[in-house]
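#onboarding

Welcome to the new folks! Below is a worked example of what a typical request in this channel looks like: someone posts a single protein sequence, and someone else replies with the predicted structure as tokens. Don't worry about understanding the tokens yet, we'll cover that in week two.

Example request:
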Amino acid sequence: MARIDVTMPQMGESIAEGTLSKWLKKVGDEVKRDEPIFEISTDKVDAEIPSPTAGTLAEILVPEGKTVAVQTLVARIETEKGAMVAAAAPAATAPVAAAASAGVAASTAAVATPAASTPASTAAAQRNGNGSAPPSDSFEGRLRSKSSPLVRKMAAEHGVDITGLNGSGVAGRVTKRDLLDHLASGPVPTAAASMHAPGGAAEFHGPVPEPWTGDRVEPMSKMRALISDHMVASRRTSAHVTSFMEMDFTRIAKIRASKRREFETATGEKLSYMPFIIKATVDAIKQYPIMNSSVAGTNVIYRRPVNIGIAVALDWGLLVPVIRNADDLSLTGLTRALNDLANRARSKKLSPQEVQDGTFTITNPGVFGSLMGTPIINQPQVAIMGVGAIEKRPKVISGADGEDTIAIRTCAYFSISFDHRVIDGAVADQFLAQVKRNIESFPENGVI
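Example response:
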């Protein structure tokens, strides 16, 4: 018999820790190779982690809810001698991030390594007592410099070198709380100096609420705390403004009804309204590239690829998987990519790379009946479009003879929340008007 180590996988280049949110197996359970054995949450994605080998779960070393560094030993699996060869050899030769970028789902990232030589334990042993910054080429130094993208962006905007800060995260990694505390301690008082919520970014300007008799108190999940942080940080970063327009989907509704059966037979995919919306949006972005940009201090970065993030509501939170290079895809390609990402988001099979590098986000609260909303920008993007409920409404239209008449039209309200630091209201409205024209004149031959 042999015991195989199971470690906390690194779910992306910039991720230094993860929370073991749930054990799917208990000690003594038989496990198959690639069968999910636990779930993790990181600041990028939730994922199920599979067993690197077949055998029996012999030890659980990290309890549910605990956050540990990547490569920390979390469990051991007892297996027949030699059963580990097929699983351990590939893991020893290829980084997890490389596997994920090659299209492997996040759940394939578990690796088998000796516990005594994990980088996390080595880094912990090397930390000095005075909290001084480690060498930049050390493992600890690399972790410090690879704080989350949000932290690096905030640091750049405030001219802060994070490698010079004493981080409270794993191996001295600088967290949002560390950066906010540093900024708050400067000569200019900031809102960050106020009392913080557990996530680190939400601010309270009054007494902290206390539970009353009969109340139920539940801690935020890892994902909910991260969403809280990101939303508050986005509000603090961007000057939010929102505009609205009504879109007439009558033409697309007719095209979809007439082409649906042919499309689904040819592609095997369900045809919803969203691929039409994505296509219309991508074509409008080509005419208004500022909508596909990011702000870096006093510079504007115009992104070359158009990577569309689609907000997916889950039972346990919200994820925004990204359709990369959406401007290169046909309606069929967009449909396939959309359906695949949404399905894998709900089954926790997304890799970290699939929720990164979005350049423009679309959220669709209309599926729940909402008519309109003012969504918060997904940093470091500069705009997010909200799609309201698509429904039939009575509308006044002009006939060929110039006479007005009441007709039934399929319509929806769209919103565009934009960063007024770099996008003026006129430009945002012109962009949304172009989306409207693209939807209302969608070519019938553009479906298949």
